[in-house]
Structure formats: C-alpha cells, structure tokens
Amino acid sequence: ADILRHLEELKLQFDYTTPHDLVMTMYETGMRISEAIAVYKEDVIGDLDKPKLRVKQSAPEGYVTETLKTAAAYRDIPISKNLYILLLKRIKEIPQNCVLLFPNKNYGLLDIKNVRERWFKNVMEMGNAKERKKITYYTPHQLRHNFRTSLRDAGLLKEVVDYRMGHEQGSHIGEEVYMDAMRSSDKESKTMRSLL
C-alpha cells in the first residue's frame, strides 16, 4: 500500500507517469530494463481476454536495436488486464508521432543510468521504514528475480518460466543464477510483493 502511494507521489514529482508505469510493467513482466525502455506502443497486443506485451527490441547502449540478448528474448509476455488497461491509457496520452511506450519528457529514449539511479532510488526509498529494513537491495534487475520467484511459487513449469524470462530452452541460467539468488532472498521477494 505504501509503495503504491509513493508511486502516485512519484507521478507528481516527475510531472508525468512514466516512472510509475515502467516500474509496474517491469514488476509484472520480469523484463530486463533495456527491454522495457525500448517497448513500442505497438507492442501492447491482444485484447482484454488475452493481453500481452511483445518484446522484440532493446536499448542497452542508448539506442533501440532489434538485437536482443538471446533468440529466446523475443517473446510475447502475458500481462494482467489491469496492466493492459494502464498501458492502453498511456498510449492515448503519448503523442501519435512518438513510438515509445515509456518515453522521456521530450518523447525520446529513456537513459538506463538515470532510470536505475534516480527512479529506482526514489521507488525503493519509499514505504514503511520497518519493511525497507527487511530488504537488502532493490534494483531494476531485482524485479526479474522477484518475477521468477512469483512464477516458481505459482507452480509454473520451468519451460514456461524460461520463456517468460527470455531464457533459452534447456538453459540452466534460471536455475543457476536466479534460483540461487532467490533462495537467499525469498524473504526479500515476499516483502517486495507485499509492498507492491
């Protein structure tokens, strides 16, 4: 509850909704930050019955490229109806000549460093102090770990989890990297989910 209240305050501080909407999108989809800032308005696909967010480009170096980290990174991620409605509202608010779903104030590409240092610092400093003390670190990438934990806790098959994360089938990245981190931060992940 506190985190949502602070995200609303963040909208006012930045005078636009990009920080709130980007954080919520990354939290719900597990997208890499470089993928999330490069999402185009046309990548919100499907309808209310089967809403999805298409991942087909990234911006790791300050420009949009269709070269993703792996072939498996090209994917359509199922999203909630609430997120779908939020993103459709964004699309209506962004000028037609801007293709990005999460543009900066000048309708250009967001700077990854700025997002990490400014937005996430503000987002992660919010909420109740007692709850914050339970969390060792929060980064945009931590949202990916939290997403994978949520999928695991929901009982999804490894192949489904790997697809949603953009990992190659048969890869052990998710199990070796993410699962080790999740085992050591399950309490933190649960705390993060309760804050969001």
Model description:
The longest helix has 23 residues, at 173-195. A hairpin with a 6-residue loop joins strand 1 (44-45) and strand 2. The protein has a three-stranded antiparallel β-sheet with strand order 1-2-3, covered by helices on one side. The chain has helices at 2-14, 18-29, 33-36, 81-93, 112-124, 129-133, 140-153, 158-165, 173-195; strands at residues 44-45, 52-55, 75-78. The chain is built from nine helices and three strands, in the order αααβββαααααα. With 196 residues, it is mainly α. Helix 7 packs across helix 9 (173-195). Residues 180-184 have low confidence and may be disordered. The protein starts with a helix and ends with a helix.
List keywords for this structure.
globular, mainly alpha, 196 residues, three-stranded antiparallel beta sheet
User: Which stretches are poorly predicted, pLDDT < 50 over at least 5 residues?
Assistant: 180-184
In angstroms, what is the radius of gyration? 16 Å
First-to-last CA distance: 7 Å
Shape: globular
How many helices does DSSP assign?
9
Global mean pLDDT: 76
E-strand count: 3
User: Main sheet?
Assistant: 3 strands, antiparallel
Give the strand content. Answer: 5-15%
Series of H and E elements: HHHEEEHHHHHH
Structural class: mainly alpha
Helix content: 40-55%
Strand order of the largest sheet: 1-2-3
Concise synopsis of the structure shown:
54% of the residues lie in helices and 5% in strands. It contains nine helices and three strands, in the order αααβββαααααα.
